[in-house]
WD40 repeat domain-containing protein (Stappia sediminis), 325 residues
Amino acid sequence: MPVIAPVDCDTFVVKAAFLGNTAAFACGNGTVRLVGEGETLAKPHDGGLLAAAVSPDGSRIVTGGDDGRVVGVSADGSLSEIASRPRKWIDMVTVAAQGAVAFASGRTAWVVQEGGKEKEFTLPRAVGGIAFAPRGLRLAVARYDGVSLFWVNVDSPEQDLSWKGAHTGILFSPDGKYIVTTMQENALHGWRLADQQDMRMTGYPTKVKSMDWSAKGRYLATSGANAAVLWPFHGKSGPMGQQPLQLGVRSDTIVAVVACHPKEDVIAIGYQDGMVLAVRFEDNAEVLLRRPGEAPVSTLAWDARGERLAFGTEAGEAGIISLGE
């Protein structure tokens, strides 16, 4: 049976992550709680912590705050300031495979290379989401009426992917062939980059706020319905003409957060009522990881081996679930 080690965060948990064997909980009050052999409380922000992203190598969690700072937090609690934009709210951050950090505020996105070199991108409308391509050479910026693509290392014209409406979040597929955005309406939109073919994914009762790719990139898992909806991307046309998997169906609540297992075709699902399930793709077999709690699940994160799952909620409930044998 899964065992839960509770962690008291006392405030909205923005992002959970694993930095090696240390679980990190980035919290809305400007702190990051680090739980390993002991427990450390880091304070990267004077004020609210608005966004956080873990580096692909798991060496640090990068946070953005309403104090205008972008800060890297290591497993031992040490802090390193990456950038500062006084009087701006940094509410989006992402980290590339080679260490570059992108962040955004208002209509502007910035990239800071590992050596400290900065590049600025100004958009005509507010930034809705940012994502690096798998190799970190391109930055995709979701915005009103589509996506802007920029090369990070060279000066070249912006590439435009157009689709009417407000695009509020964004991901590249692990193979770099597709871009998918969440939208202000209850839908996803995608593009196949080779030919800019559009892909429309609809039918959600609420807005999609969480997306994650399966271990081999064959499925895109999403929140926003009474089950985790997994769109198949292993055909030549992505999800077009294919039915999605629906895992962890519940009649009385909505999926808030999804997190795919790093190695297996298994998904962790966090619901609006605070419950957490693990579900296997193949046969929809379910394991209850956490019973309903006080508030919606706000974040889920597997460790690199897929043996532990960190969770946090909007009310500050948090913990580390050990799945055991």
